[in-house]
């Protein structure tokens, strides 16, 4: 294979005849060209900021000096290694080099190393598992230090083989990150198959996210999915303060990019932006913006099995806590690996080798074979979504409950009994609060929605519906048909909500209804309101006498006892859009009253007001699709 590369400004042609083989001492000396290439390569390290703590979570190792080795890009170097069937050998060299350089960072043993894997490794003839473990042992680093980044940049030829590799890595204690999420077309399939500990969002979705509602909506759904599976999300390529603030507002756990810190060589003084600007921005805001686990969900703080514990210590842990038959198992960074059941200990204790195990301090092999998988959910996830996760558990996972984390770190355990108790209590509470006519949540539930929205930083839309001319309709046609009209609205609202956690509907009382939307656009909500108006008008006409429908008015007594013509009942809607969340509770009654008044006089029956913080930035009277 002949290639051309630059040396001192001149182009030199060279050839590679042999494929380098990994040995205990490194690469063989026979291939001088590979030695030449490897001598040039180095790593720069880019910090990744933990939003919650303001500290560095880890560093990504980024390959550098490939141009000095004659390659236009990292991908060109890796492609060349693939062509020569030497990718695995090259990768092992790079892992060792990355770890050597990483350990020169002053805080390395408290941080994680993000290392990019080329999934074409699996196609190499010399691919073997276990080499990384030996290198980590040599450097006295735990497996949890390593975060392997896999990408959909190159298609996996065998999903099953990839899953096998990842399962082995995870069993050995490594963390898995899905890199460049969104750059390919199989992202959701990879999330489903890999169940990554970390999802890294591609720069495309981060660039301009502060001014692009569509991108924010997409990212919110990805973040929600990742958090529900107990994972964390990295916003990659954050370059401006506005992008940083937007990523924090929508719930990203980790931030990476020039705004936090540029990739730097070890020889440079590692200074990150987080020490000055990024660390001080919005931590308090994010804490207040995310609700904690509902009080009804009684989480238990079970003492975990920690790294370094021997068999005898684990047995003692079970003896000290006879009320528990299982214990969470954590790695060195307080991240949960799964559950250890008492039955697993008994089967070993009563075996012929039980006494020997009591004196065996190395428990890694034992735990790797006896930890049971368990779903993990974030402390800040919606309680109903946590319950939904548990209901979907498969036969490969423990049905004892769900491990709860706080931004990746173990926080507690939610047992199946606690979840069943919560469901029972919620149903009783819901039945007490429902409107007796429509069965919709009443004012207490509406108030809880508003209080929650007052602390959130994500866009929120609230809509108050009013049935105009309902009193004369009631007087003209009687209470029974009046109730039928209200019931038809109630059924339409239930159908609209459809079980979505991002749509809340309630019945304020009488002919007043409430809707709350999270992560929706004004345009989409406007369409829904128009559909509600049209649906009600069709239902209403079935209650009216044909003559009233034909002349488009009805006659009824006014408050003075005199006959008067009234328009037919119609729905008017006061729509308030809070672009940055933070609904002002103290002003909401006044704002709603003002907007309802405007809506009643609007020809379309819809009036829209948009707020940024506490300031109104737009209002659209007589709203139509052209206006929104």
From TrEMBL:
Pinpoint the EAL domain residues.
20-277
Domain of life according to the entry: Bacteria
Name the InterPro entries on file.
Answer: CBS_dom_sf, Cyclic-di-GMP_PDE-like, EAL_dom, EAL_sf, GGDEF_dom, Nucleotide_cyclase, Rev_trsase/Diguanyl_cyclase
Boundaries of every GGDEF domain copy? 458-622
Q: Which GO terms describe its molecular function?
A: cyclic-guanylate-specific phosphodiesterase activity
Instruction: Fetch the SUPFAM superfamilies from UniProt.
Output: CBS-domain pair (SSF54631), EAL domain-like (SSF141868), Nucleotide cyclase (SSF55073)
What is the name listed in the Swiss-Prot or TrEMBL entry for this protein? Diguanylate cyclase/phosphodiesterase
| Organism of derivation | Leptonema illini DSM 21528
